[in-house]
Each structure stands twice: as C-alpha cells, then as structure tokens.
C-alpha cells in the first residue's frame, strides 16, 4: 500500500492505517527501529512479568497516537452524537454556530484527504442545520458517502437515533436513557 505523506513529506499517521504506517516505517525509517525496539522491550516485559500479550495490544491501541481509523471512529462518534442532541428546532444563532463549527472542522480535520473530501461534499450538499432530525440525517448521508467511497456497507439512516441516541429496543443499552446529567 502506498504511504501517505504530509505536506513536509513525512508519513502521516492520521491519514493512514497503523498497519500501513508500520509497514512503511519498517522499510528503514528510524522511528521504525524505535518502534521495533519498543515492541521487543514490551514482549520482554510480558515474559518477565507473566502478563498477557493482549495487554500490549491494549496499551498500543489506547496510548499510541491515532491512525485514520481510530481517529475516524472517534470523530464519527462525536459528530453523530452531537447531531443526535442538537436542538429539535435550532434558532438562527444556533444554526450559525453549527454551520461555522462544521465549516471549521472541514478545514482542520487532521486527515487532509478526508477533510478535502468532506469540504467538497459540503459544497455540493450543505449541512441541514435547522433541525435535529435534519442534521442527523445529513450526518448519516455524509458518513454513507465515505462508507461507499471506502467500499463499506451503507448504514440505514432510519436507524440513526437508535444507534446514536435511544439505543436498541431490546434494552441492552438502556442505561444510556437512565443516566441523568
Ligand atoms: C469526516 C470524515 C471523513 C473521512 N474520510 C475518510 C477518507 O477519505 N478515507 C479514509 O480512509 N477514511 C476516512 N475517514 C475514516 C472512516 O470514515 C472510518 O471512520 C474508518 O475507516 C473506521 O471505520 P469503521 O468501519 O470502524 O467505522 P466508522 O465508519 O468509523 O463508523 C463508526 C460507527 O458508526 C456507525 N455508522 C456507520 N455508518 C454510519 C452512518 N452513515 N450514519 C450513522 N452511523 C453510522 C456504525 O455503527 C459504525 O460502527 C473519515 C472520517 C471522518 C470523520
């Protein structure tokens, strides 16, 4: 897989999967040697302490800087949840703030090609910022465009509240409705 580089010609972690980033690094970049050394040291620590190999994976997942997938998942969680709790009918001030947030976001999202794609989508289909339902649907459709581009299944947008606000009807997430803030 071709490695994505940032504007300074350095490998861009948030533009790539961790796997492809490590493959590139393993081809001789000095950080690869450090990463390999860290992995070896961690393996030695596992052997010495008897802790499980999965704890290394957890450490790596939780404490390493994000790749494009970790960042993407976290960001979609934020964006869909923000839409799910947006005012049912936003006033003009709220609409302006949301519009400006999404515009700023589309410039500063750290994966450059993702941001470019989002900006071009927003130009063709401006965010629906007037109501909660409208924004939730816009977010769902925008996410689906990325899903399609990446060869993933489309999400059923009639289920967006169930996924991001109410939880499934079988009650397995019912704690989410019981919590008071
Ligand atoms: C704005 C933005 C642009 C991106 N652009 C790119 C890109 O150009 N190239 C790239 O490689 N990656 C891009 N990503 C990352 C990519 O979308 C995924 O986040 C990443 O590949 C991880 O995918 P995933 O399968 O874990 O689930 P994600 O796509 O991250 O989805 C997380 C969860 O959201 C739910 N979900 C899925 N689709 C929808 C939907 N349509 N509506 C509501 N909920 C949904 C599902 O429950 C899913 O498990 C982008 C991310 C963002 C936030």
Describe the structure.
By secondary structure, the chain is mainly alpha-helical. It has helices at residues 18-25, 30-49, 53-63, 68-84, 92-108, 112-124, 132-149, 160-166, 175-178. The chain has two domains: 13-63, no CATH class; 68-169, ERV/ALR sulfhydryl oxidase domain (Four Helix Bundle (Hemerythrin (Met), subunit A)). 64% of the residues lie in helices and 0% in strands. Helix 5 runs antiparallel to helix 6 (112-124). The structure holds flavin-adenine dinucleotide (FAD). Flavin-adenine dinucleotide is lined by residues 68-69, 72-73, 75-76, 80, 109, 113-114, 117-118, 140, 143-144, 146-147, 150, 155, 160, 163.
Low-confidence stretches: 49-58
Largest sheet: none
By secondary-structure content and strand pairing, the structural class works out as: mainly alpha
Determine the fraction of residues in helical runs and give it as a percent range: 55-70%
H-E order: HHHHHHHHH
What is the tally of beta strands? 0
Bound molecules: flavin-adenine dinucleotide
Number of domains: 2
Write the layout of secondary structure elements.
Blueprint: H1 18-25, H2 30-49, H3 53-63, H4 68-84, H5 92-108, H6 112-124, H7 132-149, H8 160-166, H9 175-178
The structure holds flavin-adenine dinucleotide.
């Amino acid at each position: 897989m071709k490695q994505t580089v940032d504007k300074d010609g350095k490998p861009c972690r948030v533009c790539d999967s961790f796997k492809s980033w490590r493959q590139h690094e393993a081809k001789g970049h000095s950080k690869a040697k450090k990463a390999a050394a860290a992995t070896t040291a961690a393996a030695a620590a596992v052997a010495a302490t008897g802790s499980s190999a999965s704890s290394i994976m957890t450490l790596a997942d939780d404490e390493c800087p994000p790749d494009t997938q970790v960042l993407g998942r976290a960001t979609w969680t934020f964006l869909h949840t923000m839409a799910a709790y947006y005012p049912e009918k936003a006033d003009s001030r709220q609409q302006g703030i949301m519009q400006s947030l999404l515009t700023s976001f589309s410039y500063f999202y750290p994966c450059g090609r993702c941001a470019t794609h989002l900006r071009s989508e927003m130009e063709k289909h401006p965010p629906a910022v007037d109501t909660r339902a409208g924004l939730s649907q816009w977010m769902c459709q925008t996410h689906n465009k990325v899903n399609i581009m990446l060869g993933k299944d489309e999400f059923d947008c009639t289920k967006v509240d169930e996924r991001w606000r109410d939880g499934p009807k079988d009650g397995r997430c019912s704690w989410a409705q019981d919590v008071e803030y």
